[in-house]
Amino acid sequence: MQDTLALDRQVCFSLYRASNAMIRAYRPILDGLGLTYPQYLVMLVLWEEEGLSVKSLGERLHLDSGTLTPLLKRLEQKGLVTRGRSEQDERVRVLHLTDDGRLLKRGARDIPDRMRCMVGTGLEELAELKRLCDKAAKLLERES
């Protein structure tokens, strides 16, 4: 009989280990852009949809305001984003990229291909891995 509590049998540990390895692999690439991994995630969202509210950004990234606010302050200090007020509702903070923030996207364009090469798998396998991770996250988020 196999021990169900053995570390090597835990899916959670495999995901944890893979996540840590992925973030460590990003570090030298992102250092060249002057970004941390969480800052990169923020920039990915803003490159996709500028003028987003801080609340909407937090929902997209699954981050609370206590985590997001210092990230945004650092990006603002680096001159990559600005935080302003919504024209429709003064209480809502909206985010805009600066010219430097938009330019940074050019330097980031090859990152997904570089990471895919580091992982050493094909696009179909990566798409399946992403699908399974997204499915697990969705199911687990419903439970919490």
Give a quick rundown of the structure.
With 144 residues, the protein is mainly α. The protein has helices at 11-31, 37-48, 54-61, 65-77, 99-108, 111-119, 123-143; strands at 81-85, 93-97.
How would you explain this protein's 3D organization?
The chain has 144 residues and is mainly alpha-helical. It has two domains: 8-109, Arc Repressor Mutant, subunit A (Orthogonal Bundle), CATH 1.10.10.10; 110-144. It has helices at 11-31, 37-48, 54-61, 65-77, 99-108, 111-119, 123-143, and strands at 81-85, 93-97. Strands 1-2 form a two-stranded antiparallel ribbon. The protein starts with 10 loop residues before the first helix and ends with a helix.
Helical proportion, percent range:
55-70%
Mean pLDDT: 94
Assign the structural class, choosing from mainly alpha, mainly beta, alpha/beta, alpha+beta, or little secondary structure. Answer: mainly alpha
Which parts are unreliable, with pLDDT below 50 for 5 consecutive residues or more?
A: none
| Global shape | globular
Distance between the termini: 31 Å
Number of helical regions: 7
Number of domains: 2
CATH domain fold name of the largest domain: Arc Repressor Mutant, subunit A
CATH architecture of the largest domain: Orthogonal Bundle
Largest beta sheet: strand ordering:
1-2
User: Largest sheet, described in full?
Assistant: 2 strands, antiparallel
Query: Radius of gyration from the CA trace?
Result: 18 Å
For this entry, what is the oligomeric state of its chains? single chain
How much strand? Answer: 5-15%
Provide the succession of SSEs.
HHHHEEHHH
Query: Tell me, what is the CATH class of the largest domain?
Result: Mainly Alpha
- The CATH homologous superfamily of the largest domain is termed Winged helix-like DNA-binding domain superfamily/Winged helix DNA-binding domain
How many β-strands, per DSSP? 2
